[in-house]
Please model this.
Amino acid sequence: MIDRQNSSDSESSGVTRRTALKAVGATLGAAAFAKAISPLTEWAAHESIDDFLQKHYRELSPVDMAVVLERIAQDTREDYGAEVEVADHRPQPGVKLGYALNLSICVGCRRCAQACHVENNHDRPSGNSYIRVLEMEKGSLDMAKGNVNYDGPVPKPDKFYMPVQCQQCDHPPCVDVCPVEATWKEDDGIVVVDYNWCIGCRYCEAACPYHARRFNWTKPRIPAAEVNPHQSYLSNRIRPQGVMEKCTYCLHRTRDGRLPACLEACPTGARVFGNLLDPESEIRWVLAHKRVFVLKEELGTKPSFFYFFDE
Amino acid sequence: MNPSGFRFTRLTPALVVVGLVWIAGGMWLLAQEARSPAQPGGGHMAETSTPRAQPSELRLPMRSAGVAQPRVLTDEFDHHGDPVYAACSTCHATREANFKAGLDLLPTEFHQGLRYSHGELNCLSCHNADNYDTLRRADGRALDYQNVMALCSQCHGPQTRDYNHGSHGGMVGFWDRAKGERERNRCIDCHDVHAPAYPRVNPVFPPRDRGALEQLRREQAHSANPSSHRHD
Model:
């Protein structure tokens, strides 16, 4: 985690979004380039000059940031008719956020996925959510055999249910493949995306072994009354078309000490959340006392999301 | 409004029947809806923004704040026309306690329609024969209804331990308790005391993004060749 932070901090690598775009354009030719990024062209038309000229998140001064946040709130007012407050929630010192999910308890009701949809201002027509719940055969932990299209009543006797979202890996393959450093891992372990920097190439989506990243194919549609006004730059502000997005453990809540929306929505109490660096935390108790495992451990991604069974 | 009203009315047979019809109707509606193809925009938007009541008996914790003292609905009405609830002792102070009542001898004369399936327990394993307005501990001492958690924890050690470590029973509020409070459920917010098995439910929010389905298919193809996932 630490070295990842350092390597991505060194912006001196000289890769910026604009140089990357230029390089790709040079090899493809302008027309082919336009075609290659076709989902982006519409996005580019939407994007204001201010957006395009904005600095990388980590180069913004506090004054820059205040201006950017105000601009986003204003755009949301104009585009969605909703009054929102966009903040920039920063990692808390001494905190590494971790999640654990009890597979003996989860019944597969999908209320977590629904709560995510609402909390994170997802596009309503496509029913997007950062959480996908897999119905699994008892005795198998192979994600690939999971079925997302199950219906009720649940739980079925020979099945168990496994919600999957971003695992906030310590070695995130999605971060490694980003050509413009629009995604990185923060000090509290959260892997974030700067939506204003992302070029929408979707390499990260392909690289994620957990299928946890989503692409905004369209400009999200959300009725004004349903927009969650409590927003953060790196999390649930309404994303532009043509960029990647992902679960941030609801950093706009969790960096204020609150529980994530998916946990609060869980009617079964299957989810445990807390600070992995605090030996007294409940999540540390789970790690010490339960049979815990991570998904696809063999890939060496080192998730901060754990699954467990009661004995 | 008496917040406990809902709970106790399930003892009234007529209401139980109405409830069953409602439940069955709800299931049917939900099944229909699940089958209908996704409409662009409109209809489905409403579904996600206003979660509808579940046809199952899933208890949504935090909303079912129970009362300290259970009472039962009688046939009487007060002068406002509101139904009258009676304390347990109203009848039981004068009735002989029946220690045999339980799974094999459910009440028929009163408390009809009680759903009951809790191990081999008799009614008076938990209810206090000396004072029906209280519960009974394993050691025979009385226990107030508010302290129901202490009743459950006597017999369910592992779940109680997990609950005390935040890994059973859920919560709402703050994980960082230096920053704020959190609220816990009681055991009986999720488990019906008399039939505590967690109910089966109809899932909400069926996945409808094509991406999800495509990805899954791709994932299936990939898994035939897991080495293609390696990145380091």
Residues 62-80 of chain A form the longest helix (19 residues). Residues 1-15, 22-26 of chain A have pLDDT under 50 and may be disordered.
